[in-house]
Structure formats: structure tokens, C-alpha cells
Amino acid sequence: MSTTHHTWPRQLRLPGQVAAPEGPIDMQMMYVMHHAFRRDLDLFSAAVRNTPASEWATWVLLEERWELFAEALHEHHTIEDDGVWPALEALGTEDEVATLTAMEAEHGEIDPLLEGCAAGFRRLAQPVRQHADEDARAALAVRVSAARESLRRHLAHEETEAIAIIQRLLTQEDWDRIEEAHVGKPKLGKVVRLVPWAAYGVPREALERVFSQPGGGGFRLVWRLTRRGFARKHARTFRFA
Q1: If you average pLDDT over residues 158-172, what whole number do you get?
Q2: Which residues form the Hemerythrin-like domain (predicted)?
């Protein structure tokens, strides 16, 4: 790597984050997404335990929020599986490749858990139910708890080992090329959905740092226009959490 230690960026640290390996790549957006995944799964776990099965309107909101969470997580994992891990495997040692293979395998373990949760939310959000389905709520609570624990382990593994490999093997230019090839320019509707979701609960100082990066001004504007409406809906969604 051509980047020397004294020019490395200061890595972002957010609540719940396990590690932030030093290196030439500024991983702030990765950590913002990880924060959002942890935050939502903590909230879903509490909400499913405590929301009465009879509160149909709240379950509709919970299903909608789960779809947003799952969409963001699926895209996050797809970018890693299709872009990040292959780039690293071409450069890594045998031990590093084994770590990356384990990361892919963990994605495969998480996906069925998420699908089971989605089915549970859909059932409880059905518009016509003959009675409060407490059995479905209890089953969903077990599934969400399993998904939460699995993803928390995976994120910790990624932050301690996989991101350390990224920092050893890639430059910021390499990272930018991967993002350009596998992320691209998001559509406005997607930005409007994801920016307030990802930013919610992130400390203001950290948000200012994210928004101050090149191209961050548009995200700042979207956040300012959507944050209050998102916060109100968030409060209704997790009113029992």
C-alpha cells in the first residue's frame, strides 16, 4: 500500500461497535450501517416481545420497518459477497481467504433467519384476523432473537477480522472502485427511505462528519427534510418497545 500511517483517516466509532481497525480506508459508512442494523434488531426484539398481537396497526408499521431493514441488509451483504470479498480473496493469504469464506457462510446462515422473521411480521400484519394471534407473536419473538444474536456475532466478526483484512490489502482508491462498480448512484426514492433510517440515533458529531464528506451535502439535505417525519413514524412503530 502506498498510503503511510500518518495519513490514515481517523476511524468512526459508534455505540455498539466492537472495533475499528486502522488503515488507509475511511470505513465510516460501513459503521453507520452496522449501527443501524444493531439498533433496529434491538428494537425489533423488544417490540415483538411487548407489542400485543391485537395491535394490528402497530404490526403493519413493524412489518413495513422490517422490509426497510431487510432491504438495506440484503444490499449490504450483496455488495460484500459480489464486490468486496472477491477483491480481497484475489490478494489474501490462505488464512485471510478462510476468514472471508467464513464471512460469506455467515451471510448464508443469516438469510433464512431473516426470511422467517419476514413471514412472521406478514402474518401479524394481515388485515383480517379472527383473533389475536399470540402464538404467532411468540414464535416471531424467538425468530427475531435468533436473527439478532446471529447478526451481532457476524458484525463483530466483520469489524474485528474482515475489516482488518480490507485495511491491509486495499487502498482508498481500490475501495472507491468497488463502491462505484457495485453500489452506483442510488435513486432519489431509495435515498429518501434510507438516509433518515441510517442516520437515526447516530450522534450528531458523527453525522456532521459523514455529511461533510464529498457528496454528503445532498444526504444532509434529505436528512433535514425527512428526519422529523421519520422520527414520528419510528415512535409509532416501536411504541411498545
Answers
A1: 97
A2: 29-162
Cell 398481537 sits at which residue?
53
Q: Where are the domains of the chain?
A: 27-184
pLDDT band at 155; cut points 50, 70, 90: very high
Q: Report helix, strand or coil for 193.
A: helix
- Residues 24 and 171 sit within 8 Å (Cβ to Cβ): yes
How many helices (H) and strands (E) in the chain?
10, 0
* Predicted TM-score of the model (pTM): 0.94
Phi, psi of 26 (to 5 degrees): -80, 110
CATH of 27-184, one of 3.30.565.10, 3.40.50.300, 3.40.47.10, 1.20.120.520: 1.20.120.520
Instruction: Decide: 199 and 207 in contact? Cβ < 8 Å.
Output: yes
- And the C-alpha cell for 127? 388485515
